[in-house]
Amino acid sequence: MRDSSYNIQKIAKSLGLSVTTVSRVISNQTEKYRISAKTAKIVRDFIEVHQIEPNEIARQLRMKSTKTIGLIVPDIANPFFSEIARSIENEARNNGYFVILGDSNDDQKLEEELVSLMQKRRVDGLIIAPVGKDSKTFKQLVSRNFPIVFVDRYFEELDGSYVSSSNYEGAVKATKFLIGNGHRNIACLQGLQGTSTNSNRVKGYLETLESGGLISDRNLVKGDSYSESDGYHNALILLKEFPQITAVLCLSNLIALGALRAIKELGKKVPEDISLITFDDQPYFQFFQSPLTTVAQQMSSIGTSAFQILLDHIVSENPFLKQKLLLDMPLIERESVRIIG
C-alpha cells in the first residue's frame, strides 16, 4: 500500500538533503543539474522502500502554483542589474518558471506599487533589489513567510533571505590597494545613501583610511545616486574643491563613467593625474584607454543563487528557511591606478 503521509519536505528532512535536490530527482532532472547517481539512488530507494507515490509528490509541487515569480530591480538599464536579471530569468526558465519584471527606478512609492501588483498577479515568490532605505514594504511579507529573496541590497532588521556581495571587504580591498600604491588623498563617490550596499562600502573605505593612519574626511565623500549623472556632477565638485585629490573610489560602474567624463572635461587624465577604482566590473572596462581597476561582483552567481534560494522557499514553505549569502569580491588590477613614489 502506498504511503500518502510523506511530502517532499519530510523526504528531504529524512535524507538530509535539500528540498530542491529531492524535487529535481523526482522530476527526472538529475543530469541537467548534475545530481550524482548516488544521491538520485538514495532518493529513489527511499521512495520505493516507503512506498511513496511519486505522482502525488509531483502533484504537491504543482499545487497552488502559478509557475511565475516577480523580479523588481531599481534600474534595469544598469548593466549590473540587467546581468543579474538575465541570470535569474535563465535559471527560472530552466526550472519551468516565468519571470514578471518590474523596474522601480529607485523610487520607493513605485516599488510599493510593483510589490502590490506582483501579489495581485499571484506570483509564487519575489526576488527584489530594493530601493533599500525603508523595510516597511516587506515586513509583512517576511513575517507571514511569503517566499522572498533580496539581492544586492537588504535589511539587517528583517530576518529574510538575501544574496549580496561582501561590500565592506570589497571597499577595504580597494582602499588598501590605493594606499599601498602611495595615495594619501583619496575621495569617494558614493551611491544611494541609507542603503546597505552603500553604507557598507563607505564604512569600509573610511575605516581603512583610519587604520592606515590617514584622516577620514567625510567632505571627500560625495553623491546620492548610483547614476552616471550623479558621478559626473560630484566628481566635478570634488576635483575642483579639493585639488590635492590623487585617487577616487567609485561605488558603482555608472558612477565611474560619470567620473571619467568629469576628469576629461577638467583636462585631466587617468591615471597620470587621477587614479580610479570602481565597483562592478564590466567587460568593456578592459578596453578603455586606461583599463579600469575594479572590485568585481559575481553578478551571475548572485542571480542564480537568489533563484535557487527562492525555489527552496516556494517548495518547502519552511518558516525557518532563511539563507543569508555574501559573495566574495575579487580586486581586478588593470591600469587606472598609478604608483606614487
What does this molecule look like?
By secondary structure, the protein is of the alpha/beta class. It folds into three domains: 8-62, no CATH class; 68-165 and 299-327, Rossmann fold; 167-296, Response regulator (Rossmann fold). It is 44% helix and 14% strand. It has twelve helices and twelve strands. The protein has helices at 8-15, 19-26, 37-49, 54-62, 79-94, 108-120, 136-143, 167-180, 196-211, 228-241, 253-265, 299-316, and strands spanning 68-73, 98-103, 125-128, 148-151, 161-165, 186-189, 221-222, 247-250, 275-279, 293-295, 324-327, 331-332. A six-stranded parallel β-sheet has the order 2-1-3-4-5-11, with helices on both faces. It has a six-stranded mixed β-sheet with strand order 7-6-8-9-10-12, sandwiched between helices. β3, α7 (136-143) and β4 (148-151) form a beta-alpha-beta unit. The N and C termini lie far apart (81 Å).
